[in-house]
Backbone:
């Protein structure tokens, strides 16, 4: 199964909402990164990525989220994760991913937000 991104720009235009469904791994990474980068250019480079419907996100998938975050920051925006599955928190914490570094909202638990 491939990663599917559903992109919805919220009404106030301050953030782009992106819902990830399916599997975000090495086989789907390039297509997902391309869609995330396109989403940044819809309105503003501020993304809210909802992972609550993702079946699996592996280290390649997290790398894609880091790359998208770096691009958003370069463009003056941010990338915030919501609906982070419980199984991802150990990987995020262990890797000290840029998605979580120096973020006061870095907390364990489903539905927690990570912003960068």
Residues:
């Amino acid at each position: 199964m491939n990663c599917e991104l559903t992109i919805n720009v919220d009404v106030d235009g301050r953030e782009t909402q992106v819902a990830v469904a399916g599997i975000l791994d090495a086989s789907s990474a390039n297509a997902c990164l391309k869609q995330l980068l396109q989403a940044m250019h819809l309105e503003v480079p501020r993304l809210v990525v909802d992972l609550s419907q993702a079946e699996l996100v592996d280290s390649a998938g997290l790398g894609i989220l880091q790359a998208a975050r770096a691009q958003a920051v370069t463009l003056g925006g941010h990338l915030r994760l919501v609906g982070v599955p419980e199984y991802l928190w150990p990987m995020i914490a262990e890797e000290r991913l840029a998605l979580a570094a120096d973020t006061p909202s870095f907390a364990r638990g489903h539905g927690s937000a990570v912003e960068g």
User: Anything to note?
Assistant: Confidence is low (pLDDT under 50) at residues 100-112. The chain is about 30% helix and 30% strand. The first helix runs from residue 29 to 40. The two ends are 28 Å apart (CA to CA).
